[in-house]
Amino acid sequence: MSVSVPPWESLDMSGRAPRKAPSLADQAYEALKQWVVDGDLPAGVPLSENDLARRFSISRSPLREAVRRLQDEGLLEPSGPRGFSVPPLSVELVRDVYGVRRALETAAAETAVSIPPEEIVSMRARLDDQVAQARQGDFAPFNENDFAFHDLFVANCGNRLLINSLDRLRGNLKRIINYAGQFEAHTLTSCEEHLAIMGAIESGSTAELRHTVDVHIRGVTERLVATFEANQG
Fold this sequence. Notes:
Blueprint: H1 24-38, E1 47-48, H2 49-56, H3 60-72, E2 77-78, E3 83-85, H4 91-111, H5 117-135, H6 140-144, H7 146-154, H8 160-180, H9 184-203, H10 206-231
Antiparallel strand pairs: 1-3, 2-3
């Protein structure tokens, strides 16, 4: 069984710095990942390796490499002898993904140092604006800024392995955020938790930063689990 997929050209590569031309496997990986995260490939629908290879006008070898990478990130799973599918969002996935996120981000908070003052000032202004918009019912700016906000301390933790490990989680994190971000109570509570984290960053207290990050991710996990249980039976 095959599924209709968005056009190859729909992959948004804007805003990225010039770099070496990506391989066919890289291009297929980026396209498939974006479609999974955006919900353009429905969960549970079997996808054919042959069909997608033809759709991308590439051989099965680079397509297989792209699929392997996405399976390693938990964004695809085997389905049938030569197929694969997007795993459904579930309570178990939320607990697993956010459990790892909590462990990594609280560790990052403990070692975050030398955050440039201009970045702190800029993020404070953006966060205040996004929270104000969320309180008026526009949640998109806040949700879209989630990773950029957390990167304020993660990118300054000095642990490249930790940063790379978090990056591998982001596909499923984005899927979950895209789903949960539509719920007002969840988003408004997250706004308040981000404000507390911002205050800890501004205070320069590593202990307070770790505490507020821990409270936030624990709270997000509990709210997400409750949301999934209420809306998905």
